[in-house]
Design goal:
Length: 141
């Protein structure tokens, strides 16, 4: 049985970028109450760069840790670079997750993509060619 890495424990105990952005340029929410993990991500965008990002996560420690790490990884990045961040990259940055918790990192990636998609929609741009389809939470099916 794998225990959580020190990095996971640190991001769980001291999550970065928690909260919400009142005048966010994009808001994404994924997950649902059935599986117990809900992530909401808020982004501020200036000249194509994510200048601020906050999250609210309702879920287990791994869900909080992956949300926290994902926000750290995208802050200050161009949108197109933020879109390249995968759940695998989040897991690697956290030095691993137990298999049963990998879906949390998928939710982190999807909430980010959902926030970026919302940003494009608000700009009157169809986000799907840029962001792709955002699948439903797999662990909920």
């Amino acid at each position: 049985m794998m225990l959580y890495s020190e990095k996971v424990m640190d991001h769980f105990a001291n999550p970065r970028n928690v909260g919400e952005i009142e005048d966010a340029d994009g808001v994404g929410e994924v997950g649902n109450a059935k599986c117990g993990d809900i992530m909401k991500m808020y982004i501020k965008v200036d000249n194509g760069i994510i200048t601020d990002v906050k999250f609210k996560t309702f879920g287990c420690g791994a869900a909080v840790a992956t949300s926290s790490m994902a926000t750290e990884m995208i802050k200050g990045k161009k949108i197109e670079d933020a879109l390249k961040i995968t759940n695998k990259a989040v897991v690697e940055a956290l030095e691993g997750l137990p298999d049963s918790k990998i879906h949390c990192s998928v939710l982190a990636e999807q909430s980010l993509k959902s926030a970026i998609a919302d940003y494009y929609k608000r700009q009157g741009v169809d986000p799907e060619p840029i962001v792709g389809k955002i699948p439903e939470c797999e662990s909920c099916h």
